[in-house]
Amino acid sequence: MAGLEQATSGRVTVLQEDISAMSEAELAQFRRGRVGVVFQSFHLIPSMTALQNVATALELAGQPNPFDRARKTLTALGLAHRRDHFPKQMSGGEQQRVALARALAPNPKLVFADEPTGNLDATNGASIVDSLFTLTREQAETTLILVTHDIQLAQRCDRIIDLRDGKICESNSA
Amino acid sequence: MIALKIAQRELIAAWRERLHGFRILMLCLIFGIASISAIGSLRGAIDAGLNSNGRVFLGGDAQIELTYRQANAREVAWMARQSRAQSQIIDFRSMAVAPTTNKRILTQVKAVDSQYPLVGAVTLSDNMSLSEAFAGRDGLPGAVLAPALLRRLKINLGDEVQFGQKSFVVMATLLKEPDNFGNFALGPRSLVLIKGLEDSGLLAAGTLFSSKYRLLFEDGSELGQAQQRFDRDWPGTGAKWKDARKASPGADRVIERMSRFLILIGLSGLVVGGIGVSAAVRAFIAKKTGHIAVLKTLGATPGQIFWIYTMQIAVYTGLSVVLGLLLGTLAPFAARPFLPDNLAEVALISIYPSALIEAAVYGSLAAAIFSIWPLAQTEHIRPANLFRGGAPAQWPARRYLIVQGALLATALFGAVQFSGSWSMTFWLLGGIAISLLILALISGAFQFALRRIMSGSAFQGLLPLRAAFSALASGSERTGSVVMGIGLGLTVLAAVGQIDGNLRRSITQSLPDKAPSFFFLDIQTTQLPEFNQRLAENPAVWKVETAPMLRGLVTKINDQPAAEIGGDHWVLRGDRGISYADALPEKTKITAGRWWGARYSGSPQISFAAEEAEEIGIGIGDKLTLNVLGRDITATITSLREVDFSTAGMGFVILLNEAALRGAPHSHIATVYAKASAEIPILDELNQAFPNVTGIQIREAAALVTGVVSSIASATSIGALATLLSGFLILIGAAAASTAQRAYESAILKTLGATQREILTSFALRSAMIGALAASVALGAGLLGGWAVSHFVFENQFEVIWINAALVIFGGVGLTLITGMLFALGPLSKSAATELRQRD
């Protein structure tokens, strides 16, 4: 759905666009500003500071004043004091909050969160999840798609799709 | 014992992985060792060739050389008594004239007797024998000419050629001359019989020629004893002895110094290789951090850990030494077709253990010096690193620093011993060390500056550039080792290019502005007035200088052998042109002492060149004994003069008062300054009027010297390319090591919406910037080195050779860019999802 993999058959339509027929370059254009991803392992660019990591997403989205907006987002997530730090200088929880800021800062239509708490302790995990839900709900046009094995966490979502062995088993609205 | 077992297990595992991770380390060492052993083996082959063919190159067991004269009856009788066979040759420069084409070309004439050659064989065209060739045809004596001379005279076999006033018929071309190794000649060779030169006017008293007598002794004769008898019986004659034990001392010296220099250049390749070794060992230890932490958890001591990995590196070094030596031994066999003809003929290519030992010692020491630091880091790895990632780099324990210092001192001592020259080793290795330091400091400063710049919101909107700067600042691109590796090779290339370019410019471009058009030799005193008259009447000639010219050897300084006082100074090494004057010559500047008065006829006095006097360590009041035409003249230095050799004009180091030399048979030398367009007609006119006079065109001589300079520069550049190749290996190592990092960065950027083009641009920018940084620093260091050598050694005015500078910059950027791009395509083509999933 994020256009990171090419479909081998069938069609994938996301945000009214058929992404299965898109080339690599078109998929990149498609993601810019419309799709944000939060990974289990954070995946920040190691050679960039927290601020630069967040600003990069805004720059690619073509949004004005990317660094100012990145600063604001990091401050909102309580990372004002860490914005000039490199990923290896931050704790796992801090890195995941930077990843969250990077995904949400461009105000995307879709945010994919793939096991966002998988690599975090319980306290940090809860804090990240709170931020994730609060911020996406604040952004009226943003839909959060959360992938998790944690049933309790899944129940905080508006709609739950149960996947087993790659197949949809159930689809419920909360 | 446990350490050995674990090391053995890890080695087997690495072997199963086809030495992945050690290939760059081994290649760096193999190339360095191979280049040093190849140069050493080639030198060994040439040395062996010179030694085993000493008799052939000399033309006999021994040679007695007289300058300016032939042996007298007493000396001929001595040679006949001492040896079983003798042969005489007379060597001189002359003009070869082709009457049919009216061409005049400078030639080096070798006039021989019927015994020539005593050893070896001359090969002529059509398998003609020398006696057949010299017999001539139609009443004219025969001559043999080098093919180049025949071509330039535009004549064929059977045509007439004149030397001086004598005509010869060209009977054959000279294909091989056994006794011509290592001789530098301004013109191609002509061979004639000495008898044929009678009445040519070329061997008149005072003309410049050398007479060489080759001797063959009874079998089993001791050459050392023969030389002792010569020293005893020929004192004060000016005769020089040479024997088959050291047949070509000049060539020996050049080959020895050149090969030593090239080995030191090769050593710079090994230093660069060492940086590659260091980077590879560091990466190896970083990869093994978890493994080492586990071993420590299980109770392995720091000492055991150190030896586990040191033994592994030693095995890879040993393997590299063997492969490097193998390659270095085979290289001269492969290089034989590309060697200059005379060297290819001489070289006895074989296995020379001393060359291999030298290369093995250098290779092993380089590996030890550069790997000890990263190996010492194993001490700082703690079991806790299993949970907290790699250990930060720390200063090694004192004992490792002491061992490293001792190894470095051994390497320096070895380099001095092997090169045989403190100064050459000091300057070259000092230059390498300073260049590396500059490269390291500047790349460090560059990264520091980038970190400062990149800490804010610099380069907003320029994502590829910002990502490139961030990567360079973070050190993920191994900027330091690549800049040092590539930079050192480029520095040597830049310095060689600048020195070579400046030397060539000074010879070919600046010289003609102030240099004369010709030198004329062998002008007889009776010919001088007409010679001057003709030139004075020629409107194209604007200046003529003439001086009496004799040749003499400085044998003693203050009654002691000259070499004991002045060492190996060039003025004392052989015959020097000397002259005399009565009144102080025009524009001569006396720097010390006083010029003898006009018509001075007292005891002999010398005016000596000031700079050379200082170099030799002599001055006013010192007594020199000169051997001129077999007679000793002792004279006192009463003045010192400024002599400028850079203009190629008239300049004599030794000038005597007229009365001291006037009676000695001699000729005159002239320098003629004329318009370039009139040079050939002047040469033709004067040669027709004075067939015995030899004219040397400065332009042609300069081209020959430029050729020699170019070959030295080419040899050095090949050495520098070997250094660059080692740098290239480091570049490949760094590019390969950063592949995983780049694949990761590429995947994240793709997820954020960056296109492949933007990511590729960022990768290209970082490669180009590393190349540009290395090339700029190398150019700066190369220019500095080039300026220092031009200014202090050659005393030339220095100008930047822009073509070389551009080549260094574009070469450096091109090399890193192409390599970077080749290694970027892999990471770029990887699916972002796959890459990121692998890291989850």
Overall mean pLDDT of chain B stands at: 85
Helix content of chain A: 25-40%
Total beta-strand segments of chain B? 21
Which percent range describes the beta-strand content of chain B? 15-25%
Domain count of chain A? 1
Query: Largest sheet of chain B, order of strands side by side?
Result: 2-3-8-5-7-6
Specify the structural class of chain A.
alpha/beta
Largest sheet of chain A: 3 strands, parallel
As an assembly, this protein is heterodimer
Key descriptive features of the protein:
heterodimer, A: 174 residues, alpha/beta, Rossmann fold, 3-stranded parallel sheet, two-stranded antiparallel sheet, 7 strands, 18% strand, B: 840 residues, alpha+beta, 4 domains, 6-stranded mixed β-barrel, 28 helices
Report on this structure.
The complex is a heterodimer of chains A (174) and B (840). Chain A is of the alpha/beta class and 174 residues long. Chain A has one domain (32-173): 3-Layer(aba) Sandwich (Rossmann fold), CATH 3.40.50. In chain A, 37% of the residues lie in helices and 18% in strands. Chain A has 6 helices and 7 strands, in the order ββαβαααβαβαββ. Chain A has helices at 24-31, 50-60, 66-76, 92-104, 122-138, 151-154; strands at residues 13-14, 17-18, 35-38, 110-114, 143-147, 159-164, 167-173. In chain A, the strands form 3 sheets. Chain A has a 3-stranded parallel beta sheet with strand order 3-4-5. Chain A has a two-stranded antiparallel sheet with strand order 1-2. The longest helix of chain A is centred in the last third of the chain and has 17 residues, at 122-138. Chain A is globular and about 45 Å long. The two termini of chain A are 22 Å apart. With 840 residues, chain B is an alpha+beta fold. Chain B has 4 domains: 1-53 and 256-420, no CATH class; 57-246, no CATH class; 423-514 and 699-840, no CATH class; 541-674, no CATH class. In chain B, 56% of the residues lie in helices and 17% in strands. Chain B is built from 28 helices and 21 strands. In chain B, the strands form 2 sheets. A 6-stranded mixed barrel of chain B has the order 2-3-8-5-7-6. Chain B is elongated. Chain B starts with a helix and ends with a helix. At the A-B interface, helix 1 and helix 2 of A face helix 16, helix 25 and helix 28 of B.
